[in-house]
Amino acid sequence: MPSLLALCRVDKLLPDPGSVGVTAIDKRPVLEPLPVKPYGVYGDVQADRKNHGGLFQAVYAYAQEDADWWAAELGREIPPGLFGENLRTEGLEVSSAEIGERWRIGADLVLEVTSPRTPCATFQRRMGEPQWVKRFAQAGRVGAYLRVVQKGAIAAGDQIEVVHRPGHGVTVSGFFAAEGRGEASDLARVLAAHLDALHPDIAELADLAAR
Q: CB-based contacts of 197: which residues, under 8 Å, 6+ apart?
């Protein structure tokens, strides 16, 4: 059964030459259980709240299987939290999850997949790899943002159960690829027809497609 390999939150804010001046991308695993509420993991923060965080990007998940792929590709370790993720999962196809899919982690927490992660310049600086944003995007192993449907406390080692899959077929990686080609509006309209809650950016695309 899929499981939570590591639960991560910000270790400390780091200086960053971007517009905000600092970044909270430095996530590190914690051993104790932590509550997860509508705005994310207890004690976690986002420095650039215009582009990160909020109800529809409360939690970021990345699969160990994708991290292993990158480790082989880059010839370096990809420890939990390096990509700025809160959840490092095992046995769960995060980038292939359907938008609107729901996961139960531990006894109470229920999360819903809302959107792909879009790599940014801060991520590029964090990794220090040539053309990292382009390479990360082209690989399609982008991980998923999630919103909190039901709050609860979780810890590393908790099981993850997919409790709902909407069945529309629009996956995280598929939507991300369509965005890169400028073809995401039609997929956004499909999502709007199936889901009650949409990431604001997807809702805007759906609205444009409907005009």
A: 56, 112, 114, 147
Where are the chain's structural domains? 3-205
Q: What is the structure's pLDDT at 93?
A: 95
Any idea which fold 3-205 has? M1 Pyruvate Kinase; Domain 3 (2.40.33)
d(CA 33, CA 125): 30
Q: Which residues, other chains included, contact 132 with Cβ-Cβ below 8 Å and sequence gap of 6+?
A: 119, 123, 124
As a whole number of angstroms, the distance between CA 75 and CA 171 comes to 28
- H or E element at residue 132: helix 132-139
Q: Are strands 27-30 and 3-10 parallel, antiparallel or unpaired?
A: antiparallel
Contact between 46 and 52 under an 8 Å Cβ cutoff? The reply is yes
Q: Within the chain, which residues score under 50 in pLDDT?
A: none
The b-or-e profile of 136-154 (16+ CB within 10 A means b, else e) is bbeebbbbbbbbbbeebbb
Residue among 23, 18, 154 at smallest CA distance from 89: 154
